[in-house]
Amino acid sequence: TSLSLQPTITPELVQARVHLKCTYSHAPSKPHLQYVVLWSRLSSPGKREQIHRETTLESFSYVEMDGTNLRLGDTVFCTVTAFTRDAPEQQSLPEDSKGFYAGIKFLPESLQIAEDGKEHVLTVLSTVPIACPGQDDSCKITLQLRTEDLDSQLPGPPNIALSACQVDLLQGPCSESSCAAATVTVTAVTDFAQDGNRISHIRAEPVGQRDLLWRAHTPKDVKVTVRDLPTGNCYSFTDPHIITFDGWRYDNYKIGTFLLCQSVSRVFEVHVRQWDCGGHRSATACNCGVAAR
């Protein structure tokens, strides 16, 4: 039968090496049980690959993230069955832990933002503790961040801007599936172009790492969809004909400096300067200067 062992995977540092620990419940009514713990990793969607098997009297089992059999970026499971010494052929039903992703990841895993100037917080975290094998090493992982526009063949500025080019994950105690975390803000670049919704990726790469476990790890990219917003335009051209944001048209033949437009919600305004460019028969003014704040 099922013993409700409820196996759970948690990360730990053992002698400055990253390990995963599978913990499960003892059945109080059956004190002399032995346990078979099977460790496996997700090798492809829906398929698991066995990496370690152990029979133990303890209510826990360890496996090392060695960078070979078990690497950062793996999703790991532990499966536990129990039996008594006098009847080893009678095993309980195998019980699976939840899949534990070991490595660096972004939260949220994807973003949908608009060209409205708002900042969106992106958290990058490590689900496993950061080891400090040598005393001269600083206990951190430095991640280089870069963006990639998937429609880079289109002209214009990049789709998104980050508040930092790199972040540090500092060693600390693990809590709530995070052993180290940093934040960065993402903003959509307002390009004043009707170019439709565009897609970018944010990539993080560990830099300056001597430890193969971290050096070989490339976290999954964040997909950022930038929603295009309609851009308002106003015009003042030739002897000035003016078209406002809402399409209203009029002329201004006067000479001087004028406030062409001003925002009521932010610090933004445009001034135009007009000079005499008419003949003897009629007074006409033309644009000769512009200043924007």
TrEMBL record:
The lineage of its organism: Eukaryota, Metazoa, Chordata, Craniata, Vertebrata. This is VWDE protein. Pfam families: Ig_VWDE. Keywords: Disulfide bond, Signal. It comes from the Eukaryota. Residues 232-293 form the VWFD domain. One of its GO terms (cellular component) is extracellular region. PANTHER family: EGF-LIKE-DOMAIN, MULTIPLE 7, 8, VON WILLEBRAND FACTOR D AND EGF DOMAIN-CONTAINING PROTEIN. GO terms for molecular function: signaling receptor binding. The keyword Nucleus does not apply.
